[in-house]
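In the previous chapter we treated chains in isolation. Here, by contrast, the input contains two separate entities that must be folded as one system, with a combined length of 388 residues.
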Amino acid sequence: MIPVAGLVSAQVDDTTVIMNVGTGTYFGLEGTGLLIWQLLGEPTSVGDVIDTLVAEYGVPRHVCAPDVVKFLMQLDELGLIQLVL
Amino acid sequence: MRAEPFTYTTYGFVLSSDIALPGVPKGPGKADIRIRSGTVPEQLGTTATFSNGAFEASPDQFLFTVAGVGRYHVAGGREIVVQRFPGADEADVVATLLGSALTALLHQRNLLVLHGAALAVGGKAVLVTGVPGIGKSTLAAALSARGHDLITEDLCVITSDKAGRPVVAPGIPTLKLWGDALTELGKDRDSLRRIRPGSDKYDAEMGRRFRQRPAVVSRIYELSAHDTPKVTVTPITGVAKLTTLINATFRYEFLEQQGGRAWHFTQSAALASAVDAYHVARPRGGFLLGELVGVFERELASV
């Protein structure tokens, strides 16, 4: 996965806001969501993202994985990331 | 021979116009923006990158039509040409010129234009936004009568000062108020000019209750009506602040179709970070001006 082209980002208070200027949709990221977003700065896989979070926070993989997948699906629905095969 | 155009100064720009703009401050200087009557093409032609029947856009041109009023061509952030339709009311022609057309031009200059009123509070500016009819003008009139001079109403044009702080430019020193709002404010409507014959809306000149200089924006209040018995004030933070500014952006659809989402996003985020924002919910049923003014007076005491 990588962020789609045509994104702009800005800081509002403690939130990083990302907009897809092609569609006009935007999304605010903080905390873990922001960390995941930063991991997507270079092409990465869902598995890599989960591995990093498990290592970072020491949470069990089966607890972390569903939340990560849900979050990435949300980013995908908003048109902020794309799958790279 | 053509008549000498009128020269006006408003929103931080000098306007040269061969159309009279009643209520806009006269002011000399080299024109930044030219306004004239003329022939406007029905379409932009092959340069158009967007067209939906109501308006057309290309990277530096904008064309729109208002039925019964006229057609407006806005180009390069510098010029507006107006073609009146037969029988058009001049008040409507000018209102559209100073609203939609001027906003499209300011978008071409990558300027953030919010729909709302700005009031001076201790040398800073407080903006009140909200959907049309929510009571921004009436509230602005009431607060100006209590010593908070009006900076602008309807269009809040945001630029930045040398220190990079967001400032709002002084606009037109007139409030357009409904007859019942004037009654509530204890003003005599008979002494005021109707915005057009037969209308129950009046031009209330602000006179000395108008600030002629820009002011740094310190707070934004978004006013809305809800099923609530009392007026409540809630802080807005993070991404919701940006949503407030996008909702308050005048003619956002114009700038979207002129490829303006990126600059608008950057500038809105900068403004959102620099100010405190609050949501003010007022009861849906009645516009309780006294209670609302009381809430605002308490709020503004801490600006």
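The mean pLDDT of chain A is 90. The two ends of chain A are 8 Å apart (CA to CA). Compare these points with the single-chain example from earlier in the chapter.
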